[in-house]
Write a structure and sequence with these properties.
The chain has 427 residues and is of the alpha/beta class. The chain is built from twelve helices and 17 strands. The chain is 28% helix and 20% strand. The chain binds iron/sulfur cluster (SF4) (2 copies). The site of one iron/sulfur cluster has 14 residues, from helix 8 and helix 9.
Length: 427
């Protein structure tokens, strides 16, 4: 396999790789944001005081790129208000107080052999499924590409340090992932299904190889960050290069995360919308765990289930240490939350920024072929036109450059500022 250029090899620190997924008691209340995906936010379908059931649709949008959201507990809507998301933005959210009964409203199950492509696609939409690997792109849109594709790549790479939610899902619910992959292959009309897993998860590779006969083929990849990113994954798995500004479908492929596959299976076979997911809660907590929790569960509740934090907490991150977002208040789990990482003094070493010594390490590490050192200079000089010419917008904020920089220059932070500057310029 050709692999992909650049990238880094951070320590895995997968403290929870051997820990079975646990299901904690349901939280007393959930905060369900009406924007948990890329695309248009949903409009609320319920008002304060409404009684809802688990799985009931509570938000939807007529926009083509959007995905409905559903109540993740049965109970009473006690609030409709702006709430902070794990990304730091705010979104209108439905706050539900549990009635303790967890009464469900499900859709009728579908037989994937008999159901038409359109029925299956509609089901994926109605279930509110979005990419659970982090991007949150509505899955029904991705499964209906405007061009012919020939391959479905199931993404079990999970390359960020600490996170083990997908690893455990493959070990514990591999059959369900493959049932979902089969349904997605039918919708896409593709024969070829490849299941990509990095070689730091040999047990998952072996397990999925045993299960995948007749569905697809497992592709073992050498561990390297950020291989989980779709464009790097396609280069590693298929040797196909997604053009700058292009999408996987431009090279005839669709990539779906393992959790998304399982969600599609549950929506079709059980009629259940996406109201829960596996989250790795790790770092400086008394007992790191993989937890299956309802969407909308506050991070504070997750930390409680792990015995609370230990030592001096420096930072709580939604996601992994490379691409996650630092959170400064209690935020809810959303459909794309794979990890809550508590960082203490051991993980957060504050070092002063030094001058760029032009070592070129950031350029070597950049999987997008950018020149991070030059971009930093351009952003700081506020030359946003030149930033555009040097493709700053194609930076996917993977953090490889900052990881290798000996001068501790906050390159990603500066690049984000550059993106804002370009947007202002365009306006
Ligand atoms: S954060 Fe951007 S500039 Fe830095 S390595 Fe990743 S893609 Fe390249
Ligand atoms: S890695 Fe850091 S010090 Fe080296 S060239 Fe890049 S920005 Fe400069």
């Amino acid at each position: 396999m050709p692999g992909f250029r650049g990238g880094v090899h951070p320590r895995g620190l997968k403290l929870t790789g051997y820990k079975k997924i646990e299901v904690p008691p349901l939280p007393p209340r959930v905060v369900v944001p009406l924007r948990q995906h890329l695309g248009a936010p949903c409009n609320p379908l319920v008002e304060k005081g409404a009684q809802v059931k688990t799985g009931q649709k509570i938000g939807d949008s007529p926009a083509a790129v959007s995905a409905p959201v559903h109540a993740s507990l049965s109970g009473t809507v006690v609030e409709l208000s702006q709430q902070r998301l794990p990304t730091g933005d705010k979104a209108l959210s439905v706050v539900i107080e549990s009635d303790g009964k967890d009464e469900w409203e499900r859709m009728p199950p579908l037989d994937p052999e008999r159901a038409s492509r359109e029925e299956l696609l509609q089901r994926v939409r109605e279930a509110g499924i979005v990419g659970m690997g982090g991007a949150g792109f509505p899955t029904h849109v991705k499964l209906n590409p405007p061009k012919k594709v020939d391959t479905l790549v199931v993404n079990g790479v999970e390359c960020e340090p600490y996170i083990t939610a997908d690893h455990r899902l493959m070990l514990e619910e591999g059959e369900k992932i493959l049932e979902g992959a089969k349904i997605m292959a039918k919708i896409l009309g593709v024969e070829r299904v490849l299941i990509a897993i990095e070689d730091n998860k040999p047990d998952a590779i072996e397990h999925m190889e045993k299960l995948s006969e007749g569905v697809g083929k497992v592709v073992r990849l050498r561990t390297k960050y950020p291989q989980g990113d779709e464009r790097h994954l396609l280069r590693a798995v298929l040797g196909r290069e997604v053009p700058v500004g292009g999408l996987p479908l431009d090279v005839g492929a669709v990539v779906q995360n393992v959790g998304t596959c399982k969600a599609v299976r549950d929506a079709v076979l059980l009629g259940e919308p996406l109201v829960e997911r596996v989250v790795t809660v790790t770092g400086e907590v008394a007992e790191p765990k993989n937890l299956r929790v309802r969407v909308g569960t506050p991070f504070s509740y997750l930390l409680q289930q792990c015995g609370g934090t230990v030592g001096g907490v420096k930072k709580v991150v939604a996601g992994g240490p490379m691409m996650g977002f630092a959170v400064y208040e209690d935020v809810p789990v959303v459909k794309t939350t794979g990890c809550v990482l508590v960082m203490g003094e051991r993980q957060v070493v504050e070092e002063e920024e030094g001058p760029c010594i032009r070592c070129g390490r950031c350029v070597e590490a950049c999987p997008m072929g950018l020149m991070p050192t030059h971009l930093v200079r351009l952003v700081r000089a506020k030359d946003f036109e030149a930033c555009q010419q040097y493709n700053l917008l194609s930076c996917d904020e993977c953090g490889c450059c900052a990881y290798v920089c000996p001068s501790k220059i906050p390159i990603v932070h500066v690049i984000r500022e550059g993106k804002k500057g370009i947007r202002r310029l365009k306006k």
